[in-house]
Amino acid sequence: MFHYLDNAATTPVRPEAAQAALEAMTRDWGNPSSRYALGTRAAAQVKLWRSDVAAGLGCAPEELVFTSCGTEGDNWAIRGAVELNRRRGKHIVTTAIEHAAVLETCKGLERQGYEVTYLKPDRRGNINPADLEAALRPDTVLVSMMLVNNELGTVLPVAEAARAIKKAGCPALLHCDAVQGFLKVPFTPRELGADLVTVSGHKIHAPKGIGALYIRRGVKLLPLICGGGQEGGLRSGTEATSQIAAFAAAVRAGRASFERDYKYMLDLKAYAVQALTGAVPELELIGDGRAPHILAVSLPGFKSEVVVRFLSDRGVYVSSGSACHKGKPSHVYAALGLPKKILDGALRVSFSYDTTREDVDALAQGLLAARNELFTALS
Fold it and tell me: Where do the domains of the chain lie?
């Protein structure tokens, strides 16, 4: 038996989603572009599934384009937005704590002559809306700000960013990476004031390999992939029907239990804070995470990667930050300007609707054992 507490990295596929994928592969497996009955039935199913995902996000079905993942959506949104506004300026505003999919894309644009302003967080991981307002310029063509930080759980001021853009009168489009916010915190693209919103399936108990990009009606992005004209001509290629079916099923289930799951995770997070600090009083809480499913902590004086391996040997799974870092130091934790011993010992604990108090208790006992049995770092 193991105790999984790394749901911000990925989530197990829920039974409803697995069943939907199986049915799509064995019953509705036709090519949606084919003009005979098997294909037209598949096309009708894709239309229904798109409506399900759009309803979960709170947008019109025609504003939703299926992608392969959140990283693809982030890349497309950012590059598409600056291309759309290429005659209006070459300035981008984002934050220093975005996912690598956003930061690396922005760095690539810098090499092409764009200027990027990276807003810094305070020591709790919060972005000051006043800093964003001050950063906007007449030539700002894009603001990209995530909704929920994937390592801290902080909720960023996306709606405030939209108001600031409008007030400044600059041509900037607003992109929001909502991968960690979708079906975790309440929002709709309209409430955020966002033009582009990225979501991903495997963070909400759908399979890997499926996501979506919300493109506000009236925003004319260039096609990501040219070919047969699927996805309204924006992303050609035969639709990944089994993944789309599973994504829709996960959204339907998550939407139906959203309020219950939100409260459950919020209560579990509060229990975790009490249990973990009770077992290891010197444990430090990192950040000001208001999202219910992410808790950042540190075991000062210990190396997080060593603690992660120690816990893994006990069947307890947490991470030392985003799974996309692959062992490299977290730019998110570093941006907070915390003491090195706290940064070195940083851990991310993340929950879902199926995480239990027993999982949290196992983590508490594992951290206590790590504190007692491992050597502290020399640095």
Answer: 3-12+257-373, 15-256
SS3 127: coil
- Residue 102: enclosing H or E segment and its boundaries? helix 100-111
Please report the beta strands in the chain, taking only residues with DSSP state E, as ranges in sequence order.
3-4, 64-67, 91-95, 115-119, 140-144, 173-177, 196-200, 211-215, 284-286, 294-298, 316-317, 346-350
pLDDT of residue 328: 66
pLDDT digits (tens, 9 = 90+) for 114-157: 999 999 999 999 999 999 999 999 999 999 999 999 999 999 99
Q: Which positions of the chain have pLDDT values less than 70?
A: 321-328, 377-379
Of the listed 59, 106, 170, 324, which one is catalytic?
324
Rg (CA), the chain: 21
Q: Is 170 a catalytic residue?
A: no
**What is the rounded CA–CA span in Å between residue 163 and residue 159?**
6
- Which two three-digit tokens encode residue 71? 């990283």
Class of 3-12+257-373 in CATH: alpha beta
